[in-house]
Amino acid sequence: MEPLTQNYFVGVDGGGTKCKARLENEYGDLLGEGLSGPCNPAQSAETAFTSIIEATTQALEAASIPALQLKDLNVCLGLAGVNVPRYRATAESWILPFKYTHITTDLHIACVGAHAGKDGAIIITGTGSSAVASLSGTLTNIGGHGFPLGDKAGGAWLGLRALQYTLESLDSLMPSSNLVIRICEALGTSDPQEIVGKSLHYKSNDFGKFAPVVVKCAIDNDPVARAIVEEGKEYLCEIVSRLNKLGAKRIAMIGGLSSQWAQWLPENIKEQLQPAICSPEFGAVSLVKHVVKER
């Protein structure tokens, strides 16, 4: 077996719903990619660890380089939840099989990728929501406090708000609507106690599964769904205002719900949004290459 003659780098984007890995050589060639399940240490450290290994292994297998093993990889983990010190400590305590591991937030790698390493800011609206500005080497986080305390305008928040309203409607405290009907259909019941029983131990990705129902009903002008969307829209507008005050000249909105929110935002806000140049995984690779070079 031929010995390795160069360094290999993996960028991992770990979020509340999925984990993506990108494997490159030192020349920037994409060698393989991997995709696995939820990867938020704040929700489940064990699941996050497993997802990291699974996605990275997939990327490694896709590369088809016989001599290359997990122990040869320089890896940057951009993870949801590690902005909270206790969960960062959890991630840092993992015994990972890699040559070198650099841990940062999913926001950090997304911002690096979105602006190709230059100054800028991002707003993520996926299962959760958060924002970060990277300006002159300083990172400023906005939101990202985790579900259910934060993550307003994220998929989990949309699902939670829909279930809350559904229960109030079934208790005859609020009028029914098409959203209530569709949520009950998705749950397979219209009995409040059964709904509570089903959702009592839901995590963010479980609530996030109802986000498409809210979006579809909002597009169909259901008043309840539109009111939920309006609340999320106002929150995102406040985030853009805050990023403007910080001096961010380039703002990108990314994540699974970004295209939906973009169509609902006011024109003066939409005009400020720029497309992401590269992916979060690309940003993670760029970060670990820089860190390894500095070391």
Describe the protein.
The protein has 295 residues and is α/β, with parallel strands linked by helices. The protein has 2 domains: 8-116 and 277-294, Nucleotidyltransferase, domain 5 (2-Layer Sandwich), CATH 3.30.420; 155-274, ATPase, nucleotide binding domain (Nucleotidyltransferase, domain 5), CATH 3.30.420. The protein is built from 12 helices and 10 strands. The strands form 2 sheets. It has a 5-stranded mixed β-sheet with strand order 3-2-1-4-5. A 5-stranded mixed β-sheet has the order 8-7-6-9-10, with helices on both faces. The mean pLDDT is 94. Residues 10-271 form the ATPase BadF/BadG/BcrA/BcrD type domain. InterPro entries: ATPase_BadF, ATPase_NBD, Euk-type_GlcNAc_Kinase.
Within the CATH hierarchy, at the fold level, what is the topology of the largest domain? Answer: Nucleotidyltransferase, domain 5
User: How many domains in all?
Assistant: 2
- As a percent range, the share of strand residues is 15-25%
Helicity level:
40-55%
Q: Tell me the span between the first and last alpha carbons.
A: 29 Å
> Helix-strand pattern, N to C?
EEEHEHEHEEEHHHHHHEHHEH
- Rg estimate, integer Å: 20 Å
- Going by helix content, strand content and strand pairing, the class is alpha/beta
CATH evolutionary superfamily of the largest domain: ATPase, nucleotide binding domain
Q: Please tally the helical runs, counting DSSP H or I stretches of 4 or more residues.
A: 12
